[in-house]
Hints:
By secondary structure, the chain is an alpha+beta fold. Helices cover 20% and strands 41% of the residues. It has helices at 3-30, 50-53, 60-67, 85-94, 121-134, and strands spanning 33-37, 40-43, 47-49, 54-58, 70-73, 80-84, 102-106, 109-114, 116-119, 141-146, 153-156, 162-169, 176-185, 188-208, 223-230, 245-246, 261-262, 275-282, 285-293, 302-307, 313-318, 324-326.
Amino acid sequence: MSGKTIRLILITSLLYSLCTASDALCENTRNTIEVYLLREVTVKDNTVRLGRVGIIRGEESLVARAGEIALGRISVPGQKMIIDRPTVLSRLASNGIPASKVTLTGAEKITIKQQQQIIKGGKFVELALLFLEKNPPADSVCQLNPIRIPADLVVPTASKDIKLSPRLAGSSAANQAGVRIAVLADGKQIGTREITFRLKYNYRRVVTLAELDAGTVISPENVRIEKSIENYPEPANWSPPYGLITKRRLGANTVIRPNMAGAVKPPILLNRNQTVVIRLERPGLLITAIGKTMQKARAGEYIKVRNVDSRRIIFAKVNEDGTVEPVF
């Protein structure tokens, strides 16, 4: 065999080996993927998939398959997830793509957060205020002041239909009103906020026009009615205190409080040691006796009376005619 023939055989064998190796390499390449991991990612949905946090290259069907692999789930609005390379390889392997067919590049760890919107605390206050203005807890309420601003609420942007639903909430204080606002996302409640308001009321008050001595009868000539704003509502049966008398001296421009005036008392009808008729009357029976009062009294009051004949002390009610009736 000539040298030329031998060289031709060697060249042919070498070319065949190179083609075989190339085919094997191509076959291996077709069964592998390269994943470039991003350092920080913001996603819309709460389910995190590999295709959202990395750039995947390789055979098209394998790339599509790997891109749909779930790496975890964001369960709380505002939550951050951190995924490292071992986690990525583990999730790939559990879905039939072994680590031997994966090349990871890029970041060692991925920080993932969800796109979100924030409902500010002030927005809740505005809604609660509007609700109370349409549904006032009392007709005389004139001011509504929030005691505190509620915390902001984080809502995932994946929620398309977000509604705020207010309703009255109970309050233990007479001059406060509460509103509870439910936050609904796609028909499901995802949070609540409660806002408490301190109430102010329209109030009428009575003010002296001049100095009034104790025992002065209150009338339109010596007082005026002013409108004011108070922390508590006026009594439901409020009326001007005309006809009442002052219990003590009041200076000019004094606001008359309920404890400063009272009803006019009837005059003293019986004085101490006064002789009175003790009268006991029943159907078909009338008994009378003479007695001595042991204290002064008005009509309708109860006093002690000493029977002049028996010297016994009895308890009796003073009648309008000045007689007294024993009480048994």
